[in-house]
What does this fold into?
Amino acid sequence: MRRRQFLQTLAAGGVVGALPAGLNTVFAADASEAVSVEDLPPIEGELTLYLGRGEGGLYERVLDAIRKRNPKLELGVRRGPTAALANAIVAEGRANVRRADLFWAVDSGAIGVVEEAGLARDLPADISAQLKLGFRYEAWAPVTGRIRTLPYNPTRLSAEQVPDDVMALADSSLKVGWAPAYASFQSFVTAMRLDRGDQATRDWLKGVKRHAKSYAGELGVVMGVERGEVDLGFANHYYTLRLKAGKPDANVALAFTNNDAGCLVNASGILALGENPAAVTFIRYLLTREVQSYLAEEAYEIPLVDGVAMPQGLPPLASVQPPKIDLTQLADLRPTLDLMRDAGVL
Amino acid sequence: MKLKICAGLLSFALCAPVFADAPGNASAHGGSDAHVRELSNHLAEYEAEIKWLLDKAQALIQVYADKGSKGVNTDELIDNFEAVKVHLAIELNYVPIYAEVWQGIYGMKQAMEEGKPAAEAEAQRMAFAKALWQGMGVVKLAAQHQLAQPAPSTSTDEAAQSPTATLEEIADTLDDVLALYRKGEIEKAKSLVHATYLNRFEGVEGALIEQDADLVEDLEKDFNVTLLKALQSKNATRTVQGVVSAMQTKLERARKLLKEADKNRRDVF
It folds into this structure.
């Protein structure tokens, strides 16, 4: 059935070109279904949210909808780059000051910074039970996911020619597009470092660099693939889906590697910083069927609760085999940047 | 709406609402954060604020020495720091000192609330002063860097900005690029183009590409090739002006497309 679902998605979306041969179910679906907002109590009282910059406009629409539905909620929002907000929370915590009730970060690494400082409170078990296996944490809740992909140009190579092992790309003759200065790429290299070690990662970077073209950002990578400047690239999944939405006949398809950093699923996430009960209810709102499906449809983000459809053009999460990595460990960026500089890619 | 208590009358506006009227537009300290983008223009103001904070703390400790715990409202210490602009300037530029500032505030507060000798509260005030002046030193350094090269926004107190407003801001920034070129400050002009592309345009191009992929492709090329190339030529004001003007026309088209797309988005609930 899962194989059939995958094939249907492939046919409908016309995007997915290759998947690893072993479609094991690391993210096997749980029996539970997503909760509806209709089943949640209203949120009341004051709540301060620190919101990391991300899918700005759409996250704001979610916040506005929550406000509209909860007229007795006084929601204050402080916005900024995710890493800067994480640093501010840690500094405030060090001084025994708590100004935020919630931290919603686009990057789970920043969540790790706050969690490691011991500032996040444990969440009720039923919250993590709503999330897919592999995304269940005690002190934070992943909200939506994004997967690393290999966008490739089908006029230049076939799906079968795309390696399903990211490490194999170091010795390949394919012309590769990448964006080394991009935060998502650096998280991917961090995952490789955690998975394969520093030396193997350094060798990989040096190997790929020989046949890579650099771009400022990952949308640029995908567009470079589409124009045929490179054969394939490294990018988060949504850039390709967005390009296909605006240009359905674009010469780009998606491939995934198998059980390595090349198909890492990273997540945005939220944590509660104090005992304000409204904070936990707010988190429940973000995990509702309605918010999850909105972010999947409008922002192409991967829903992380069961019973919500994937963005069109992506296979079910259960059919991809990402590496088992504690996402909060991706905060450890400094050794990654040192290694990238050492390899001459930054 | 919740308002912070304003501790005193000052020559500059210190009293700011914690949660401004606009929904979701929280300003945790000192209202607008625009000042942190031009630190050098606000150094005197920051210094005056630090002196004011220290004077207020000293006055409070004096009242405590005369009347004891019941005579003082130690929350004033927090309210005062929340109200000044230098708060954000230190927070953004040196987080370790930012924590020490808070530790100083809580040190004074705790000493007075626990009925300790006034000298102990004063010792905490000195630590508070040291942290503030160290923070001011870092802010001055940051101001110099900012003058040398326009910095990308690192504010942690941004207002919500729609993609259409971002596109308007980008179009305005291109006028600044042209002005820098006219003054002969070519490297600064190029840095501003890079920063605008990475910190502003990249945030909206994902949504835009769904509407018009070719338009995004054009603008990508303008930002990364055409405009930079024009800026590198000497005595080419008319060329740079032409590129900027063409980009502004494309940005206006992009703004209209995103505005229309936004109207058609479905509701969340």
In short: Residues 118-148 of chain B form the longest helix (31 residues).
